[in-house]
Amino acid sequence: MQSESLNIGMQLQLFLDDWLIETMKNLALKLHSPQPREIVIRADRPYETPTLYDPVVIKDGEFYRLWYRTNFDAPPYYTGYAESSDGICWTKPSLNLIEHNGSTDNNLLWQAGEDDGYVLSIFKDGNPKASDTERYKAIAVSKRGMVGLVSPDGIQWKYLQQEPIIVGPEGDEAFDSHNIAFWDSVHGHYVAYLRGWRGGIRRIRRGISSDFRHWSELEYLDLSDSPPEHLYKNAATPYYRRPDIYLMFPKRFLPERKFDPDHSFSGLSDIVFMFSRDGLRWDRQFMEGFIRPGRDWKNWHERAIEVGSGLVPTGDGEMSLYMVANYRTPSVHIRRMALREDGFVSVHAQYAGGEMVTKLLTFEGHELVINYSTSAAGSIRVEIQDVKGKPIPSFTLAESAEIYGDELERVVAWNGNSDVSLLAGKLIHLRFVLKDADLYSICFR
Q1: Residues 280, 26: Cα–Cα separation, whole Å
Q2: Which of 101, 246, 373, 425 is the most exposed place for a label (fewest CB within 10 A)?
């Protein structure tokens, strides 16, 4: 058996595609959807309307922080703020910054008209060269283009400059969406993912910058041969456990459909999943919905649901996205959606079972760790093979422990021995035999 070889070191390996896989028999890659949890933000303030939208969540040290658009009925448009110690229970602190109805006793930190910057996309700047006075940054929509904002603390904001920092080309100037920006620590530059319009389809384009002030020419994302769909409000983010892998949870919009005949607007929305290894070429092998509107009929209209920017750890083996639901209704809210750590896609085996063999690889470390789940009757066994695909003595399938359960970090052992350090640096294949099981990720350590 011959194949290309990969040096994976001790890097976490996800099964988002077949990058690591040479062969699979009776197995499939399976997309897993996040599960709805508690409502974290309700529209319970006088400035929060049915058009509350566009949340941004970050884990900032030991705390969680959330910014969101409180209204979009008529200017001024406000940005509200909430915080949490666990990402689950949230409070809206009084900031005493913005006056509303004669009082500053509210959680508002920004207001703007259509000529100004509104619909903020906020991030904490990890650029080591960034000034502490500009540690938090944001891009925001205006009629003139995308404007930049800066803040020392994420609360008190000012414009970076009077002129827009990103202007679309003639004929494609509109950025009407929640556009996303962040510091790309892997490549050492800022990245912005922006709404665009090409060929009558809402699409996503990208720009990069070394200083947040001067941006490259915008490029549309390469989605290979996937069918064209309206995609926007992209929620792009590097995966916090593998920052060189970029995730996106765009809103898919189907303008021709209508579920509720009494609703004022046509169209339906759901959320899809895609990922990239370079930020420009994106994999859309999973065309099915990542998050469906569900049984709540108030989510069955044109822009009723949206995943905001920010994927954060929220507990033991759990990570969370934050989703707007019931948009354009009085019950609009932001709900936490929970997913298993690394649990976007698994190598999935039905009861009859199957097997997978990796490409040739080299690794570092002393033990192999897997993130997996089985049924009570299911199992996983692992074999290490040589360059020719022959089982290596002491690491054969017959000597492998039969693994069953549901664990984030299970150390693989053969006859009670988990030490694989003698094979470190050598070319090997890994063979996984699965039955009624899901394998989410692996790594050596």
Answers
A1: 32
A2: 101
Q: Are 348 and 354 in contact (CB under 8 A)?
A: no
Rounded CA-CA distance 318/38 in Å is 14
In 284-405, the DSSP E strands lie at 306-307, 312-315, 318-325, 333-340, 345-349, 354-358, 360-363, 368-385
Nearest of 4, 32, 27 to residue 16 by alpha carbon = 32
Domains of the chain: 5-32+345-444 (2.60.120.260), 35-340 (2.115.10.20)
Are the C-beta atoms of residues 34 and 62 closer than 8 Å to each other? no
**Residue 132 phi/psi, 5° resolution?**
-65, -25
What pLDDT score was predicted for residue 1? 41
Q: What values do phi and psi take at 32, rounded to 5?
A: -115, 135
Taking CA atoms, 418 is separated from 12, 367, 391, 427, 440, in Å, by: 18, 6, 16, 18, 20
pTM of the full structure:
0.95
3-state secondary structure of 138: strand
Contact 89, 106 (CB under 8 A): no
